[in-house]
Amino acid sequence: MTKDLSQAAVAAKSNPTMKDLVEQQLPAIERQLGGAMNSDAFVRAVLSEITKQPKLMSADPKTVLGGVMLAAQLKLEIGSGLGEFYLTPRREKGRDVCLPIIGYQGYVKLVLRSEMVLNVESFLVREGDDFTYGASSDRGMYYDWQPRDFEEDRPWIGVVASARMKGGGTTWVYLTKGQVFARRPSYWDKGTPWQSHEEEMAKKTAVRALVKFLPKSTDLGRAIEADENKASHVAGVDDVQITHVEDEPETFVVQEGDPS
């Protein structure tokens, strides 16, 4: 009853704040989360992220709420420190909008929702590492990696993503740094995680390439669809649509174990 009165008060405001609008959507958020996450904690994390980024406060409300609802649909935590889902402010055609971006940890979580995948991981190959890959009749597609050390200050030159399957075997992909950058969206340098968390986003790109070869959960399929489409209507909020989501080419030019 108290919650209903609070929502009515928000609806009655002539100039509701972004905080008001997010709280007004709590019932829709709860429906999307479906009990998988605490809705109050989810909303607190959203409001904390918005507070940390003042440009989100003035962004088109539909784009902010669209990003929030997408995260709720996918049941991913919002927050730059978690690496699962980012709400990123961006200037687009003279207006501030919110760009929702699924992070590396978010894709790992989504891949693991498939009962056929036991483990998924990604690592960066750095200058000085001994890294080779290819194929043989005995080993099939293979790679060998011997890091020079485990210091993270050496420049990275490539990235591997691999998944261990329940039925046995491992599926993996390798992308060079140039191939990763070729998949980077055109707006990468405009305050997105590509600018602040490049290595994490490189690992995400490799996982995105890997999922082409993996069984997909419903949530993973939804995430891929959202990433590949710049406009996507989000169920649960009437008339709210995502105007921008991170997109990457649909065709992967690097095949598993292909040394070209």
Description of the molecule:
The protein has two domains: 2-103 and 218-242, no CATH class; 106-213, no CATH class. With 260 residues, the protein is of the alpha+beta class. It starts with a helix and ends in an 18-residue tail after the last strand. It has helices at 2-12, 18-24, 26-33, 39-52, 54-57, 61-74, 104-111, 177-183, 193-196, 198-210, 218-228, and strands at 85-92, 95-102, 117-126, 130-136, 140-146, 156-165, 170-176, 232-233, 241-242. The strands form four sheets. A three-stranded antiparallel beta sheet has the order 3-6-7. Strand 6 and strand 7 (170-176) form a beta hairpin. It is globular. Helix 3 packs parallel to helix 6.
Topology of this protein?
Blueprint: H1 2-12, H2 18-24, H3 26-33, H4 39-52, H5 54-57, H6 61-74, E1 85-92, E2 95-102, H7 104-111, E3 117-126, E4 130-136, E5 140-146, E6 156-165, E7 170-176, H8 177-183, H9 193-196, H10 198-210, H11 218-228, E8 232-233, E9 241-242
Antiparallel strand pairs: 1-2, 3-6, 4-5, 6-7, 8-9
Helix pairs in contact: 1-2, 2-4, 3-6, 7-10
